[in-house]
Amino acid sequence: xxxxxxxxxxxxxxxxxxRGEVAAASREEAIALLRRQQILxxxxxxxxxxxxxxxxxxxxxxxxxxxxxxxxxxxxxxxAGLPLVQCLEILSQQTENKTLAKVITQIRQDVESGATLTDxxxxxxxxxxxxxxxxxxxxxxxxILDTILNRLAAHIEKVMKLKKRVKSAMIYPAVVIGVAVxxxxxxxxxxxxxxxxxxxxxxxxxxxxxxxxxxxxxxxxSWMGGGIVLGSIILLAVGIRLAYxxxxxxxxxxxxxxxxxxxxxxxxxxxxxxxxxxxxxxxxSGVPILDGLQIVARTAGNRVIEKAVVETxxxxxxxxxxxxPLSASKVFPPMVTSMIAVGESTGALDTMLGKIADFYEEExxxxxxxxxxxLEPVMIVFLGTTVGGIVISMYLPIxxxxxxxx
Length: 406
Hints:
Layout: E1 4-12, E2 17-24, H1 27-36, E3 39-46, H2 64-79, H3 84-94, H4 98-112, H5 117-122, H6 130-142, H7 145-200, H8 208-221, H9 223-245, H10 247-259, H11 263-284, H12 289-298, H13 303-317, H14 323-328, H15 334-346, H16 349-405
Antiparallel strand pairs: 1-2, 1-3
């Protein structure tokens, strides 16, 4: 049952009045929790849900960086011998992210009530995913929670760096495309109508390229034409988004993305790096391989790869090796499946997965650099050809007029 925030008012053992908030599954549980804290509650009622404004990037979410800092500090405190509840109390007070601080407070209250750390984390899936919860469970069971938390922090940092590399590859083409669209829109809406009005006085037939550009400008500049263009873009974006929410639509889109000439190679390399890094971290932390494959499938980010991992998990549950079904899926490169087979045969699967992840993370760096260096001339040629073609088509009547006069 999800936790509910209750406002309370009560008296301490010293007789002073204390007010505050407490998270619990029910009112009775909130009262019991307050009594364990030696507070005699007089008023306990659910907190009213008011309007809350959330701006992108300002509160309301926990970033990978916030989670990494929390995990590192948590591991350091546990390694220093501090009790679990005290660690959580200190972290809730010094965490700058208000959302994370509130979650840590609720986790501390659950642990104080007798719940395990794993059960307390499970109540907050938006902050702590399956990977985090399962590794924490393995750390609690094995008495190596500080070691597991350090591994988790290192894993989150590596995944965060991988995301940054991919985003950096997308920024340049997005900026160039945005500038190109803005330049073309200005030319079509404001510049070409001036030339068109000037050519009306010639009384002569305009060259075909000029007629095409003028007609396109009139269409885009008109309310109806502009509405059709804008509406088509919105409908296309909404259609893709709705299709991506369906099982079949997402599978088709993800399959097309993997087949793209350059971007598809980058997506595949990112997926392999993420798969091997996550599975290697889970196995080295003591999580069973079947549970690890289930977690990796959920966090794959691509339905084609997710399907391959799910089928691999089914094969492994039937007693087969990990490498054979991965090879049969045709999703993972032969080098990856061969190295995994060696890791299985030598009993060092987690180490081999880590080496594969290191290699493919470097490959992602190379792919990002290649993509950026390739896109730069392509974008420049596209922008130059488009704008140059429009300019030449608009000056054709002037060239024609000059040749007639000569």
